[in-house]
Amino acid sequence: MKFIGLDVSFLILSTLTALWNAGAQDSCADRCGELLGTCSCQVTCESLGICCPDYKEFCLQISPYSGSLMGGKDFLINNTVFKASSVLKCRFKQKITTSGYVDNDGKAHCISPLLYETGFIPFEVSANNGSTFPYSGTWLSVHHNKVSNGEKCTLVNETKWQYYGTPSTGGNLTVTWTHQTLTATHVNIEVWGYQETGDSYSENWMAEWKYLYTLAREIPNTGKYSFIPVPTEGNYSAWHFGILRIIPSKYLDGQSNILSIWSSEHALAWHLEKDFRNDPNAWATAKCIEWDRKEELLPNFLEEIIDCPCTLAQARADTGRFHTDYGCDIEKGSVCTYHPGAVHCVRAIQASPQYGAGQQCCYDSTGTQILTHDSTGGSTPDRGHDWGSAPFLKPPRIPGFSHWLYDVISFYYCCLWSDNCDFYMKRRPSSDCRTYRPPRAASAFGDPHFLTFDGLNFTFNGLGEYTLVESDLTSLRVQGRTQQAHLPDGAWAQGTGLSAVAMQENNSDVIEVRYSEDLNLEVLLNQRVLNFSEQTWMDLKGLFLYSTPDQNITVMFSSGAGVEIRESRGFLTLTVLLPEKFINHTRGLFGVMNGNPEDDYTFKNKTTMSVHASPQQVFGFGASWAIENGTSLFTYDTEFLLNSFFHGEKHNASFVPVFTPNEDTADPPVKEMLLLCGSDPFCRFDVLTTRSLQVGSSTRLSHQNHKLLVEHLKPVISCGWLEHPTNGKKNDTNYLLGSTINFTCNVGYELTGSQERTCQVSGAWSGDTPQCRPVTAIKQVIIIGSVFGIVGLAVLARLGYLCRK
Question: Tell me, what's the pLDDT at 58?
Fold first, then answer.
């Protein structure tokens, strides 16, 4: 628990146990408040399945804890046992009710509902058919494309099924699914469609998934069904894209919020009417033109979206504001279906503030951004951000589906099924990078060493909890905890390392990354340990959280601030990325971010000292940034943490580290250290302090990674897109500093203006705009006459030579 001593917590625990055993469930919340005056006993109560008012009377522990926002997932409530006669109702967000059930073991089950948002969704459970809902918990609703394949069915064909019905396509379509997901012996397969109706961007604009028809009834639940599509009865041309649902046959057609398996969303070409099959190009052209007319009436979102990074290196380094596009990932083979020629794309993490729009940026194998002006594989912004955006529920902010409706299916109409891509690119032009400003990076690693936003490097071996960076701009706080390092023989070293990092911005969720007592990496959300076994990407309050398979953690805040944490030989390696707007708005161990390292040693009391200060003076600077209990973001849920950090000093003044390790050439590890570390002072320091070459190697790698990151984030000058002249060509599509582009004209045209233009330091192109003008009639006569004259002279000269010979 947080901020409570063990003696008090045991008293509360025993008291609440007695209350619960006596059947005084209704007074649990009140008793908790009486004991502490607050709801700080939340964790203690949860160990009993009892909560403070924040969580009502009974906390539910569920498995699995997450699933697609499409719903239909059966999840088990682990910490309850019900009577077989109990009639369960599960209520989400106090308004969406699904039917639960009790299995043969007395365990309760709920079915997740269809939602139009992602994130943690509160739910309650009733055991008396909805009369009261005394039990509560949270369900994690996830973007439909980020759930495991076992949760979805798949539609496959010998050719790409999206093209089914176009020339040279046909034959069987096959639906496959994990049949064990549904316990039924027979299932139905349904077709659902998605639409957004009402007045655009208004209060009555609504999103809707609607049952259209049943594709197959009472088929065996074998996990496979093949069929040849035939045009369906009824007019479904208004449904641009849809989804398949597989349900037990006992349910009614289109029945909501029941056990089910959904496919991925997809274009509904395979079931469309005869007009499509007779002439797909004409049909798709009409759809493309219809979409283009609707776009004309919608607000211009392009003016408020973030600019793209100039290079692939910048795009991959700016992890606070951009994240890999799962549809075009260089780490997974660069299968870029919608961006031919690209090897990697990224998406802006945060949606635009007013319209909920998204940015996408794509790059070729040279690391150059691809623009739609030059290629259909270019970067295309999105009217609907693929991940959606708060407050959700209203279009075009529905995760995944608004993006499909406005930005994906329209690409099918205009670019894949007809030759009208110019319509699409006109509405979705790439942003270049002329206004992009890379973030600044600061890092801490090893024993521990700090590299500030402005490039100042120092070592601070304090033992305690400290402010790494805080900002008055967004109330951003990133705090670090250090613990004493060990020598190879298990003795304590005279140095420390980062063992935990906690962070919050404004009123966002609190994220803490720490080493547990058994030295495993833990991530805590609001003081509760998270399990990443189901999800690696979480949309949380005020932030996104991402975990890689090797447990590298990235936190992306709404402001664009990013925090990366990696495990490194028993210590944490931390990197903080802050956008340009944080300039002159930071303080802490990472200094004042303003481009001037001279004021990075600014104490908590706002005094400063020289960058040439001694290690002992730097130690005093670091100690000044010790946090206080009242401002701590950390969790103190073990006896060790309570005694060492909560009840103990935030800066342990009795711990005196080694300030300058002695490099004795007679010391055996020194020779190996020199070979390993070379001139890297941090690597040398850590080998000498911890007596471990492995720690030194890890520190050296972290230092190199930071320098490479800073290199990738250097500002790049772009002069912007250059158009090729009408009736002419250009030889390059690189518009960054130093690039030179040459222009030529087609036959019958001559070039005026500059034949080549170079991107200059000022951000402007050299020379004048080239133009290709038709060669005039008189010029053509002169040119032709000149050509014939030259040819005639050559002939005469040849004849004269032959005569003389």
Answer: 61
**Has residue 793 been placed in a domain?**
no
Sites in the chain below the pLDDT cut of 50 = 1-57
**Which residue range(s) make up the domain with 750?**
728-774
- The vertex-125 CA angle with 11 and 99, nearest 5°, equals 160
Q: Give me the pLDDT at residue 18, please.
A: 35
CA 729 from centre of chain: 39
User: What is the C-alpha separation between 97 and 10, in angstroms, rounded?
Assistant: 38
Pick the closest to residue 47 from 31, 58, 36 (CA basis): 58
The number of CA neighbours under 13 Å toward the Cβ of 381 is 25
**pLDDT in the model for residue 785:** 58
CA–CA gap between residue 323 and residue 83 (Å, rounded) = 47
Considering the domain architecture, whether residues 679 and 752 belong to the same structural domain is answered as: no
Q: Report how far apart the first and last C-alpha atoms of the chain are (Å, whole number).
A: 111
Looking at residue 786, what is its pLDDT? 63
468: domain CATH number is 3.40.1000.10
- Whether 93 is covered by a domain: the verdict is yes
Residues 355 and 460 in one domain: no
CA angle 652–653–659, rounded 5-degree value: 100
pLDDT at 304 (0 to 100) = 94
Same domain, 85 and 156: no
Q: Which of 413, 345, 409 shows the shortest CA–CA distance to 383?
A: 409
> How far apart, in whole angstroms, are the C-alpha atoms of residue 262 and residue 76?
20
DSSP symbol at 278: H
**Amino acid 26: pLDDT:** 36
Give the H or E element holding residue 119.
Answer: strand 119-126
Paired with 241 in beta bridges are: 267
| Residue 583 falls inside a structural domain | yes
pLDDT of residue 145: 87
Instruction: Name the residue type at position 699.
Output: T
Mean pLDDT of the chain: 87
Q: For the chain, state the CA radius of gyration.
A: 32
Here the CATH number for the domain that contains residue 760 is 2.10.70.10
Residue 400 to residues 298, 338, 340, 591, Cα–Cα distance (Å): 19, 16, 22, 40
Q: Both 570 and 697 in a single domain?
A: yes
Residues pairing with 188 in the sheet: 247
CB atoms within 10 A of CB 794: 10
The confidence score (pLDDT) of residue 799 equals 64
Looking at beta carbons, which pairs linking 514-523 to residues 24 or more positions away fall under 8 Å?
Answer: 514/481, 515/570, 515/572, 517/638, 517/640, 519/570, 521/551, 521/553, 521/567, 523/547, 523/553
Strands 492-504 and 511-515: antiparallel
Question: Do 515 and 644 sit in the same domain of this protein?
Answer: yes
SS3 at position 772: strand
Q: Is the dihedral of CA 143, 146, 148, 150 positive or negative?
A: positive
Question: 51 with 42: CB under 8 angstroms?
Answer: yes
How many structural domains is the chain composed of?
Answer: 5
Q: Decide which of 235, 255, 278 is a domain's last residue.
A: 278
- CATH number for the domain that contains residue 73: 2.60.40.10
C-alpha to C-alpha distance for 463 and 484, rounded to whole angstroms = 7
Residues 409, 344: one domain?
Answer: yes
CA 490/CA 236 separation, integer angstroms: 71
φ, ψ at 270 (rounded to 5°): -65, -15
The secondary structure element, H or E, covering residue 618 is: helix 615-623
* CB 590 within 8 Å of CB 574: no
Alpha-carbon distance values, 294 to 90, 209, 407, 421 (Å): 40, 21, 13, 16
Query: What pLDDT is recorded for position 238?
Result: 79
Backbone angles phi, psi at 685, to 5 degrees: -60, -45
Say if residue 590 is in the same domain as residue 677. Answer: yes
**Is 240 within the bounds of a domain?**
yes
* Claim to verify: residue 124 and residue 161 sit in the same structural domain: no
